[in-house]
Each structure stands twice: as C-alpha cells, then as structure tokens.
Amino acid sequence: MLEKCQAVADIGGWFSKMQRVRRKNFLADLKSPQHRPIVSEVCRHESGREFQAALEQWLSRPGITVDLPPLRREPDRSSEPDLRCSVIINTLDRADDLALTLAALQPEWLAQRDELIIVLGPSGDGSEKVIRQCGLPCRVIHCAEKNLAISRNLGWRAARGRYLAFLDDDASPDDGWLDALLRPLEQDQKVGISAGFVLNRQGDQFLNRYVLADTLGRAFWYEEAASAHAKIASIGGDRAFITATGCNMAVRRSLLDEIGGFDPFYRYFLEETDVVWRALIVGAGCVVAPESRVRHRLAANLARKPDFDPATRATVIRSQIHYIAKFGKATIPHEEIASCLWERVLRDLEKIAWDCGSGDTSKDSCAKLQSRYLQAVSDELLNCDST
Questions:
Q1: Structure pTM?
Q2: Which of 214, 220, 251, 327 is least crowded, fewest Cβ atoms below 10 Å from its Cβ?
C-alpha cells in the first residue's frame, strides 16, 4: 500500500524496517489530497473495495435526528444537590496509574465540600485494593461493561454535587486544579462546561490548551484562544466549537440532567465532544479555564497501545461514524465526509502495520489483520442504526 512506509505485499503488507521520519511524513500526507492515491491503492484489494461500497451505502442513508430522543429528557429538579462538586474518576485495569492519581488528590481534598466517586470497570488488576488503601473518602460504583460513556453516566447519576468534574485515572491534578476548573461555572450561569489545560507527565509541556472540535469528529489544538476562535470563524460556528477533554472537564449537573448525559453508543472516543455539542444546542457554553491544570501520563488505551484485534481497533472509527451521523451527515458534503473517514481508516491501517513491524508478527499476519480491520469497519457501516 505505502511505498513511504516500505510496505510491499497486499494491503500495506509487511515491511522489515520503517524509519520514524517516513512514518511522520506519511501521517502528514493523510491530512492533504495526497492520500487519494493511497485510497486507490487500497481499493485494488477486495476488502478495500468492500469498505468503499459500504461507505457509499452508509452515506446514502439519512442521518440521526439532531433533537436526539431518547437521550434528551426534562431535568429532575425535585432536590438540589447538597455538595459543591462531585469528582468522578472512571477506571479500568489501571491500578498503578490510579494510585498515582489518588495520591495527587490527597493534599487539598475537603470531604465536607466535595465528594469523590470512582467508577470501576470490570478490572482484574488490583484496582479495588488501590482504592481501599488510598485513604480518601470515596464511593465506588461498579460498571459491568467496558464502555466509557456508560461508566460516566453511572458516575454522574449517583453524584450529589452541583458540579461534576471528570478526571482521568492517568492524570494527576496540580494544586488548585478543581477551584480553577469550577470558577467559570460559578461566575456565569450561561456556562455549562469548563475545560482545563492538560500537560505532559513531567508538567513541562502542554498537550492540550484550547481544543477545537468539528462536526466530523476531528480535533484541532491551539496555544492561544484567539487562534482557536479564528479557526471557528473560518470553518463556521455551525460546524466548529471549543470543546473539552474528559481528562480535565467540569459540567453543571443540571445540564447533564437536561440533555440526558453521555450517549452510551460511545464505548470510547468522542463521548465528551458529543456532550459539548449537545450542550451548545440547548444554549450552554463551553469555556476554557487556563489555571486548571492536570498532568496526563498517557496510559495505554485503544488508540495508543498495539492491539491486534480488528474489532477493537475499529472502536474509534465506530464512534466517529456515529458522531458524524448525528451532527455532520445532514449538512456536510458527502465527499468531505468520505475523505475524513478514509483518513481515519488509512491511519488505522498504518498503525496496524507499524505495530506489526515493531513486534513479533509474521508477514501474512499483517495483511490479514488489515483486511479483517477493513471488514470490521465495513460491517459497522452496513449494520449501524443511523435513523
């Protein structure tokens, strides 16, 4: 598929050696029209043609109603929350990272003012022991499914705080993180979501400051607010918006009541961006809180770790397909949508090749994995409910 990646046989095939600079150049090409010849090469193969046919069939079907029933419902105002904030950590098989996150919370925790809720997925790595030994007062809720949106919903629906702060289990908050994150919500009733800054593990480099998303499920990162807003103006406010990441975000409890929380379709990826866009639809803004900062250790997840299960690898694009069906399909030209999804597919094909080349995997295995991945995505396009 890719000469620049030194691939030879079948869809991407196998390569014995790939220089990182070549990989970087290839990934840059995917964001430009230069990926069209690569698409043509993939479509020489049966599974590539099947994906293209499935994509065309999916594009011919209508998108999801923006109104979003049954997610949206009337807010429950029967009782006012009795705490300021509920900090929610969703965790799955990250005992060591979770221990570091809980340790970072210790110095400034005030149980009289805020509560800590840990939603534990079907883990088998000793996470429960870490929670018992952390010394922080907390409530533990068990989530039976490996689904981040469902896990988030379990957490906030059990919460007693006026505000809901979401912190990743591989993120350590800096001093004053929570007060700074909640300040925009406390100062302006029109603000529904607050987004903090994210730094690397060492705290000497920013990973996210001003994050912009669009209705194709793409993200753009900017160092300054002015640059982010200029990009929104160029794309259009009906397609682009300031968003938050689940690593460091806070939401009004009343807002999640109103819009019905997180869409459980998203097993992983875009679940928080979906919430931000639906919040904007009902008139609640998302603002950035620069003084709220966490250090993200970037633990392994579906997007970062090598995973040779094509169905798992397809989870991210599955979320993007659903997101586009809800927010972009009715208004964005189909050619632009197809180009966006092909970019994601090519990235995944390259990632499979890279992971195979970096590990102990046979030549035949790489090609078969790529074909099975394309089949998994094709099945998703053909079977997903977009009505």
A1: 0.88
A2: 220
Where exactly are the structural domains of the chain? 1-61, 83-296
How far apart, in whole angstroms, are the C-alpha atoms of residue 170 and residue 299?
6
Which of the residues in the chain have pLDDT under 50?
1-19, 68-75, 77, 386-387
Instruction: Give the amino acid at 235.
Output: I
CB 216 within 8 A of CB 324: yes
d(CA 49, CA 47): 5
Per CATH, domain 83-296 is 3.90.550.10: yes
Q: E strands, the chain, where? A: 83-91, 114-120, 139-142, 161-167, 171-173, 191-199, 206-208, 210-214, 219-222, 240-242, 248-252, 285-296
d(CA 146, CA 120) in angstroms, rounded, equals: 10
The pairing of beta strand 171-173 with beta strand 210-214: unpaired
Determine the Cα–Cα distance for residues 370 and 204; give it in Å rounded to an integer.
37
